[in-house]
């Protein structure tokens, strides 16, 4: 990635502050220390860049299924990851890879959104 682009992104994300408005109350400003902007135009791209290594690890693992003539194990879009596997044991292996990656990269996956 171009150094100028990296500096621009760092500036956008290291200087952001938020306030919460609830009813007629407004909180003091506070720093945002992690994540990407919800609904931000760049957010899906930044997520893809950040999560690409995980998707490659899952692909190299060789666990997944065929959809037509295409072998698919994991798909990532916007801020979602889909794991596809016909067996429970294979899916458990994929989840283990995701858990290890999450721990290494300080990522929190929302298990409540998983089915």
TrEMBL record:
Residues 1-115 form the Reverse transcriptase domain. It holds the Pfam family RVT_1. Coiled coil: none annotated. PROSITE patterns: RT_POL (PS50878). GO terms for biological process: DNA biosynthetic process. InterPro entries: DNA/RNA_pol_sf, RT_dom. It comes from the Eukaryota. This is Reverse transcriptase domain-containing protein.
